[in-house]
């Protein structure tokens, strides 16, 4: 079916497919590593977002829910499992004692560091393919935008 598409359209689909495939390879790698470390993949992602939060950001359940793309109550359950596993702690926020901040424990930090080292090595291998695909996508978008732009008005032709 795609054989009947113009060459440019086929190439665009092939590039998008390659990028999506490479991204999925990384996600599968990440999930497998988390499971081998004894974590559910979402637990790993929670630890990563808590430990990697910008300075000055309170790592609340709402913050984690936003970063993970999950509902508030789902992150509450996820954080409960992480507390039970000794991966994170709940603390009252310094600015507002009613707010609860999630903090990675030393145990969680050790596991996260091991996983992060593994992920860095995997990304070292995959990033060149991702960059090539993204560069191709970006360049084709620029080209397409220029082709769709209206030609500049010339003197004497405007009414």
From TrEMBL:
<feature type="domain" description="HTH marR-type">
    <location>
        <begin position="32"/>
        <end position="142"/>
    </location>
</feature>
<protein>
    <submittedName>
        <fullName>DNA-binding MarR family transcriptional regulator</fullName>
    </submittedName>
</protein>
<dbReference type="InterPro" id="IPR036388">
    <property type="entry name" value="WH-like_DNA-bd_sf"/>
</dbReference>
<dbReference type="Pfam" id="PF12802">
    <property type="entry name" value="MarR_2"/>
</dbReference>
<dbReference type="InterPro" id="IPR000835">
    <property type="entry name" value="HTH_MarR-typ"/>
</dbReference>
<dbReference type="GO" id="GO:0003677">
    <property type="term" value="F:DNA binding"/>
</dbReference>
<dbReference type="InterPro" id="IPR039422">
    <property type="entry name" value="MarR/SlyA-like"/>
</dbReference>
<dbReference type="GO" id="GO:0003700">
    <property type="term" value="F:DNA-binding transcription factor activity"/>
</dbReference>
<keyword id="KW-0238">DNA-binding</keyword>
<dbReference type="InterPro" id="IPR036390">
    <property type="entry name" value="WH_DNA-bd_sf"/>
</dbReference>
<dbReference type="GO" id="GO:0006950">
    <property type="term" value="P:response to stress"/>
</dbReference>
């Amino acid at each position: 079916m795609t054989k009947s598409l113009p060459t440019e359209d086929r190439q665009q689909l092939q590039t998008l497919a390659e990028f999506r495939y490479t991204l999925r390879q990384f996600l599968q790698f990440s999930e497998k590593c988390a499971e081998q470390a004894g974590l559910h993949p979402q637990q790993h992602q929670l630890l990563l977002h808590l430990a990697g939060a910008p300075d000055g950001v309170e790592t609340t359940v709402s913050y984690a829910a936003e970063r993970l793309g999950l509902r508030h109550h789902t992150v509450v359950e996820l954080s409960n499992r992480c507390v039970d596993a000794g991966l994170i702690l709940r603390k009252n926020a310094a600015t507002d004692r009613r707010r609860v901040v999630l903090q990675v424990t030393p145990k969680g930090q050790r596991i996260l560091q091991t996983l992060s080292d593994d992920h860095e090595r995997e990304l070292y291998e995959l990033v060149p393919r991702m960059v090539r695909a993204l560069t191709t996508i970006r360049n084709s978008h620029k080209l397409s935008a220029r082709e769709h732009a209206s030609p500049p008005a010339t003197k004497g032709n405007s009414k």
